[in-house]
Amino acid sequence: MAWQLSQQELHQRQSRIRDELGRRGLAGLCLFSPTHVYYLTGFSFIQTERPIGLAFPRNGRSLLFVPRLEEEHAHEHARVDAVEAYAEYPGRVHPMQRFAEICRDAGLGAGGVGVDSDGYGGGFGYQGPKLSELLRDATITPSRPMIEELMMIKSPQEIAFIRESAKWGNLAHTLLQQYTRPGLNETEVSARASIDATQAMIRTLGPAYRPLSWTRSGAHAGYRGQIGKDSAIPHSLTTNAVFSAGDVLVTGAGASIGGYGSELERTMIIGKPDDRQKRYFELMLGAQDTAFAAIRPGARCCDVDQAVMRYFDSHDLMTHWRHHTGHALGMGIHEAPFFDVGDPTPIRPGMVFSIEPGIYIPGYAGFRHSDTVVVTDDGIEFLTYYPRALQDLTIPA
Asked: Collapsing DSSP states into helix, strand and coil, what is residue 227?
């Protein structure tokens, strides 16, 4: 299997976008987000201070505007009608000045023009004008929600990529658990598991394998500092902690396949769990099971989070709550919609979510599993499948 988006997949996406532009009366799109450019063109790139923009008219030729250092790369991989390169940023003439000319030539100088941001926002020291300042005769229309709405329903090819990611994340996590022992350092264990899983993945998938992600390369598994009392910090950072008997560990694993990823997280314990650890672990499983049971087509995303909140409240856990129940994912680690009380988005077949309600006791420990699921016609299908029970997640001391 070729682990990159097919031309048919990209053609279908571009056709859907053009249909949506017609319904909204927009002349076209100007896109700058690496995720959105990749979604429409299959071109994955490293975002820097150098602007990259896609001019995508509803009727007419699409053009990808890139710095000279990306020209050959774009010609090879971008499914667009044309590629134009500029010399360098900031240059004698700011690149956005030329991009505005390209937009006008493509029929995007007047009427409604959808954008994912009003100008390039890549950071890395970038400074430049807004698109609305350069296309004064156009009506710049924020259109990120329109694009994200189309991204919510995953195609069979996208689901196949996420499923494959879950498989290699499962291997990486298996190795992570196998290699973790008291006295070892979290960084060396995480690196060893990630490298060994990635090597196995490359050997198995062969030369057609492409991660197509500049933030996630190959398979990975690790702890990100969530060890012992720091497991109670949901987004901790690596501290080079040394494992000790009695530690509660919160993990994360996945793999990048064709620009797509999955999310697998588990709570593990080194040595025989005590009664307090067992209690919170089982409560965490109950919260996740509650979320699984609430996900079905026709329900709303907020309904899932509300069901979990009721569970937390009934078990006197609200002081240990820190975040919503989950989120969509695919090309992004986090995508819309969200299992949050403030998100009324209807759940539909083909949506892919992480399910990860956590329990966090400051100064003691945190407890969180995360699984990736795809919504089906009558419920969910698990894409991750690592063991969830405490007996399977206990590491010898």
From this structure: strand
First vs last C-alpha separation in the chain:
42
pLDDT at 35 over 70: yes
d(CA 325, CA 355): 6
Looking at every residue in the chain, the average pLDDT score rounds to 96
- The answer to whether the CB of 342 falls within 8 A of the CB of 302 is yes
- pLDDT of res. 213: 81
Q: Which amino acid is at 164?
A: E
Can you say how many angstroms the Cα of residue 317 is from the centroid of all Cα atoms in its chain?
28
CA–CA separation, 295 vs 339, rounded Å? 10
Query: Mean pLDDT, to the nearest integer, of 139-160?
Result: 97
The pair of structure tokens assigned to 185 is: 């350092």
Task: List, in order of start, the domains of the chain with CATH numbers.
Answer: 7-151 (3.40.350.10), 153-395 (3.90.230.10)
Q: Is 143 exposed, middle or buried (0-12, 13-18, 19+ CB in 10 A)?
A: buried
Write out pLDDT tens, residues 128-144: 999 999 999 999 999 99
Calculate ∠ Cα 133-23-110, nearest 5°. Answer: 25
pLDDT confidence tier of residue 1, bands split at 50, 70 and 90: low
d(CA 47, CA 34): 7
Indicate the residue type of 344: P
Tell the burial category of 118 from Cβ atoms under 10 Å away from its Cβ (0-12, 13-18, 19+): middle
**What gap in Å lies between CA 286 and CA 142, rounded to an integer?**
40
> Which residue type, as a one-letter code, is found at position 49?
E
